[in-house]
Amino acid sequence: MNITFHGAARTVTGSKHLIKLKNGKQILLDCGLFQGMGRDTEDLNENLGFVASEVTYMFLSHAHIDHTGLIPKLVKEGFEGKIYCTKGTQDLAAILLEDSARIQVDDVKYLNKRRAKQHLSPVEPLYGPEDAENAIPRLTPVAYNKWIKVDEDIEVMYADAGHIIGSATVHVRITEAGKTEQISFSGDVGRYRDIILKSPETFPQADYIIMESTYGDSLHDDVFNTPDQLLDFVMKTCVEKKGKLIIPAFSVGRTQELLYFLNDLSNDGRLPKIPVYVDSPLSREATQVTKRHPEGFNNRIQKLMQVDDDPFDFPGMHFIQSVDESKALNDNPSPMIIISASGMADAGRVQHHILNNISDKRNTILIVGYCEPHSLGGRLMRGSKNVRIYGDDYDVVAEVGVMRSMSAHGDYDDLCQFLSCQDPKAVKTLFIVHGEYDVQQEFQRRLLKKGFTDVQIPAMHQTFNLG
């Protein structure tokens, strides 16, 4: 048995890990889209690194596009098996994949217009809506905390990861030559003091662990100060400067957190009467799915819902649907808050809001989560004075703010707490994935000090023998 890392290897995106059994069966853990990798992004997404038709089963950790976004391509290229996931992930992934397919088509249309001007031949999208439609029926929901016998050699169990609705850690028991070993995949680990979701769950002793490391070298700010921090940006930008507060936010998870905090401020009577626009049809759908899965909410939200039946809605909040409505926001000079996808500001409507507002010092672009360093959000976080958007250069005149308390990823304390249910000496190898290489090296040192004896940081397409 071996495992090969075809994504999220010394980077935070494109999660894709392939387990091969001696009898020829292949298990794929996630099939994510690479995002924000600069000029390498297209090539990384074009080549899976393996033959799709040879994959037997897929086990999906959660719905985020960097974990699901190449599933339609996987099916398009010949995968015919089931994709196991939780019910929450099934519901979210369905709308995310349909949206991703539209984005693939729209982005290629825009790109081909530019290529035509350069007398270059047109290119094809990675996949289209039909490919997403073909992939969605393969999503097969399973319950949390129940071992599922996939076949005579393979069992799988999902445990709550506390990252987004439906997110899970994936635990696979594989039997070869009468010997059973467990491979545990963290997916993305949430926070133990998350404002909305339950904490990550413990899991049985593993022989091998695949561990994310997004924030393996840092601690987050206290999440309970977040409403006050957010209110400071609203007051300074919208009230004092009469400007627009532009917030790039992932449609799944981050947008709902922002709406929850704004609802909290509204309930307390502290939110000024500034209109809030959620400019993402996907965010509206994702918010509806989130509401349908209260079983993922922690006790705090459950109690709140006894007096506030919708913790993601408040007076003055509007969902934007059409492109014309979206464009109208840029023509409206009034103060407002715009929450729009994507979270890394590398695609979607938020790019148009940034390019239309980046040259006005009254405005603020507020980064509220992780951004890959090469993405537009990452460049703004680094303090770039000039950025390129849709092929044109823009001076960064607007204020750029950062709130580090809102990550859905656990920091190194959370990650270590997640692993505390394991006997380090019983883990044969721990593989660190889903992190920048320098962060992974720091996390590796931390884990070695905690007693793990073999901690590896796989390179792209690197294979390791197990057992």
UniProtKB/TrEMBL annotation:
Q: Which residues form the Beta-Casp domain?
A: 255-380
Q: Which Gene3D superfamilies match?
A: 3.40.50.10890, Ribonuclease Z/Hydroxyacylglutathione hydrolase-like
Pfam families assigned: Beta-Casp (PF10996), Lactamase_B (PF00753), RMMBL (PF07521)
UniProt keyword annotations, A-Z? Hydrolase
Q: Which InterPro entries match?
A: Beta_Casp (IPR022712), MBL (IPR050698), Metallo-B-lactamas (IPR001279), RibonucZ/Hydroxyglut_hydro (IPR036866), RMMBL (IPR011108)
Report if keyword Hydrolase is assigned.
yes
Membrane-spanning ranges: none
Record-annotated Metallo-beta-lactamase domain positions? 13-250
Q: Which GO terms describe its molecular function?
A: hydrolase activity; RNA endonuclease activity
PANTHER family named in the record = CLEAVAGE AND POLYADENYLATION SPECIFICITY FACTOR FAMILY MEMBER (PTHR11203), INTEGRATOR COMPLEX SUBUNIT 11 (PTHR11203:SF37)
Q: What is this protein called?
A: MBL fold metallo-hydrolase
